[in-house]
Amino acid sequence: MKQRDKRVKKKGSRGKKLAIVLTILVILGAGGYAFRKPLAVMAFDLFLSGQVEKKLEKSYSPLEGEQPKPVVKEQKMEPFSALLLGVDQRANEPARSDTMIYAIIRPEESKVLLVSIPRDTYTEIVGKDKEDKINHAYAFGGEKMAKDTVENLLGSPVDYYAAINFEGLRKVVDALGGIELPITKDIVNKQKDHEKFTIKAGKPLYDGQEALNFVRYREDSDFNRTKRHQVFLNAIVDRMLKLDQVSKIPDLMDMLGENFKTDMMPSYIIDLSKKVLLGDAPSIKGFTIMGEGFRKNGVYYDAADEEDLEFAKQLIASWNDPDTDPDQLLMPDAREKAAEEAEIEGSKESAERKPAETVQAK
């Protein structure tokens, strides 16, 4: 009798879950727009968050010598920083960080700042006692040395890191059915010692291999390549946040597999994901630290522009401060706007002086 009762209870439990799923599908299908986000989060909570958290445990990799950051349940999530490492490891080659981005996430406002550091930036490699290209820090000492080196360059701490192998992202892009990329002219990789490929312009969606080639293309400039990495991340986020992709999250985590590592606790990622699902589409702003090329012992490097570096530090300080009002955040285009305003003001003053000068001449 007891076993029969248990079976009845299990059937009843499954029936309740099925009823909830059907209700959600009916409301979503009927166009109950005002309830779509809360319902998506409820569905994620009920049926997906446990699976995702279990899969994320495989990617959880705290840095050696550092204590895991405790997850504190708070009504309000504070801004935090993360070092995003795009690792490009091909067959029979050592891993290297082709992408290094200091990101600041403000969950409450759905705002993200991406400060990109070109891979050839010449700087001190912390723990190696030498100056070299910043992307060599990952090759020398993995995520820990990359994190320490970026903190030293920018003068700001990194709360978390996330390292993603581009090969894993290729599979994710295919699983999402492709991503949108603003390619207005064919991209052709044709130099003698480079992998040959062509990415056609004007396609509505680009598959995983095309997206991977988009971030790997290097025959224009390191600056443009860094900007493409930001565009690629934006495109992934846009595609992921579409409501019809929520159910695919566990499968996507499986595809990333060993290609994804982070020291952010799985439970915190789950809380952050729900915050993103409930909030507005993220507003992502980007800034790249420019540099001037030079050669040393026959090797090409970028010397970081001091004004850009100082401005990057100001951006980070503004965005990292939880007391900064969203409307008062320093924006990446603030310097250009200030210069334009100064030029307009100068033109006005010049125009006002001209009549007086003409009168004197007469």
UniProtKB/TrEMBL annotation:
Disordered as annotated region, ranges: 319-362
Ranges for domain Cell envelope-related transcriptional attenuator: 96-241
Entry-linked InterPro entries: LytR/CpsA/Psr_CW_biosynth, LytR_CpsA_psr
Compositional bias annotation for Basic and acidic residues: 333-356
Origin: domain of life: Bacteria
Family per record: Belongs to the LytR/CpsA/Psr (LCP) family.
NCBIfam families membership: lytR_cpsA_psr (TIGR00350)
PANTHER family the record matches: POLYISOPRENYL-TEICHOIC ACID--PEPTIDOGLYCAN TEICHOIC ACID TRANSFERASE TAGU (PTHR33392:SF6)
Protein's recorded name: LytR family transcriptional attenuator
Provenance organism: Fontibacillus phaseoli
